[in-house]
Amino acid sequence: MPLASAATSLRRSLEDPNAFIAAPGVYDGLSARVALEAGFDALYMTGAGTAASVHGQADLGICTLNDMRANAEMLANLAPTKPLIADADTGYGGPIMVARTTEQYARAGVAGFHIEDQVQTKRCGHLSGKLLVDQATFTTRIRAAVQARQRLESDIVVIARTDALQSHGYAESLARLRAARDAGADVGFLEGISSRDMARQVVRDLAPWPLILNMVEHGATPSLSAAEAREMGFRLIIFPFATLGPALTAMREALKKLKRDGLPGLDSELTPQMLFRVCGLDDSLRLDAEAGGAAFEGGVDLRR
């Protein structure tokens, strides 16, 4: 019997009122491998991390659909049964482009994605000065995604994100999310929640619709643990900077040391073999051997 797709698994989890999903943000293959090694059952592809790692640019709407789809496809297929939730920004255009985005993400193996109500020249949700499309345009984006999913007969999960809180307030944000829910969105996403009271309130106001919490530490939202989010009634929580932040800190320190001392001073356990094992070396060697290959009969560890 074939395994359920990651999208189907995610959809079934959302149908289970006792299920809760915590997904660390990943931005490239190595960060995803480390998150999987740590035991996480779902991953989140951060748009900010994709912009930073692919282009070396801030999250200002620079990534195209092709950038995001290519990164998402690689991440989703490292562990095809583990759901990948991916940023899809504004859907990259009008209804036709939103439908195309949905189709490409679904075929890439993405389990769920969120579309927001910023204008095309968007920016990170935790920066000020965001400009929004009107509610009708936002609802059209969501409807286009839902209809594309249905045409494909895909279980990919459509998440409706509103950034209206900062400039239009809570009531308008709630109205937009309700409109998105009525248009068929599977999950709601209020970006920039600014207090614990608001977090609890939006869960109550939209119950029993599943909501996702975006936990960007030192951003607009107070620091909430996965356990706190679950207690409040959220069904999913994402941590966009969970790997990008530590990577930035570690690279800065190592490169300062290299510049100063002439060596990065890595721990003795950080061998090439260790890095490659995190990236699936042993599975690759096993695959080769099981197929009758002899290229790696002598092993790959220089210390033997």
UniProtKB/TrEMBL annotation:
<dbReference type="GO" id="GO:0016301">
    <property type="term" value="F:kinase activity"/>
</dbReference>
<comment type="similarity">
    <text>Belongs to the isocitrate lyase/PEP mutase superfamily.</text>
</comment>
<keyword id="KW-0418">Kinase</keyword>
<protein>
    <submittedName>
        <fullName>Pyruvate/Phosphoenolpyruvate kinase</fullName>
    </submittedName>
</protein>
<dbReference type="GO" id="GO:0046421">
    <property type="term" value="F:methylisocitrate lyase activity"/>
</dbReference>
<keyword id="KW-0670">Pyruvate</keyword>
<keyword id="KW-0808">Transferase</keyword>
<dbReference type="Pfam" id="PF13714">
    <property type="entry name" value="PEP_mutase"/>
</dbReference>
<dbReference type="InterPro" id="IPR040442">
    <property type="entry name" value="Pyrv_kinase-like_dom_sf"/>
</dbReference>
<dbReference type="InterPro" id="IPR039556">
    <property type="entry name" value="ICL/PEPM"/>
</dbReference>
<dbReference type="InterPro" id="IPR018523">
    <property type="entry name" value="Isocitrate_lyase_ph_CS"/>
</dbReference>
<dbReference type="InterPro" id="IPR015813">
    <property type="entry name" value="Pyrv/PenolPyrv_kinase-like_dom"/>
</dbReference>
